[in-house]
Amino acid sequence: MKLTKMFLVLASLGALFVATDGATLAAPVTFTVSTSVIGNCLVSSAGDITFPAYDPLSTSATTANADVTIKCTVNQVPKISLDYGVHGGAGLYNYMKASGSTDTLQYQIFQPTGPKPASNSGTQWNGKQFTGAAAPATTPIPAIAYTMYGQIPAGQNVSVDSSYSDTVTVTVDL
């Protein structure tokens, strides 16, 4: 039985060689694989700036900070902008609005001197772009944190309210 199977295999191979009649197989073909890589940055997270309770009678500014974290493709330099928030602002100040009145509380957000850890540059962020650091060529793609330094100036005469707030949008361009 084994001999019969072996004979059939050899006969089949022989028939294959006869069927090709000495013809050669087709030549190999090549093809190209290609793409391009786009430069891109995205905000991977933005923390909330949560100030402690504001005392209108204090002579010191109230401060708090949070980080905005950016991921970019290699060598891309993010240009980070913050708007003036939903309650508007101009020049030096943004405005938080009270939940129970029409009062607004002025505040500012200042840029860092660079990626975290960094210090407060004293430069107003709102209305100005901040240029971040070039993204390094590491894997996985690193998220780079930049600190937003918030400040409520002292001496504002506003009503007591448990909830002054604003919503600010972060935009990243290249």
CATH architecture: Sandwich
Summing up helix and strand content along with how strands pair, one would put the structural category as: mainly beta
> How many strand segments?
11
User: What is the rounded Rg?
Assistant: 33 Å
Number of domains: 1
Indicate the CATH class: Mainly Beta
Largest sheet: 8 strands, antiparallel
Question: What share of residues is helical?
Answer: 10-25%
List low-confidence stretches: 15-19
Descriptive notes:
The chain contains one helix and eleven strands; from the N terminus they run αβββββββββββ. The chain is mostly beta strands and 174 residues long. The protein has a single domain, classed as Immunoglobulin-like (Sandwich), CATH 2.60.40. Strands 1, 2, 4, 5, 6, 7, 9 and 10 form an eight-stranded antiparallel beta sheet that branches. A three-stranded antiparallel beta sheet has the order 8-3-11, with no helix packed on it. The chain starts with a helix and ends with a strand.
Summarize the structure.
With 174 residues, this protein is mainly beta. It is 11% helix and 36% strand.
Structural descriptors:
174 residues, Immunoglobulin-like, mainly beta, 3-stranded antiparallel beta sheet, 8-stranded antiparallel beta sheet, single chain
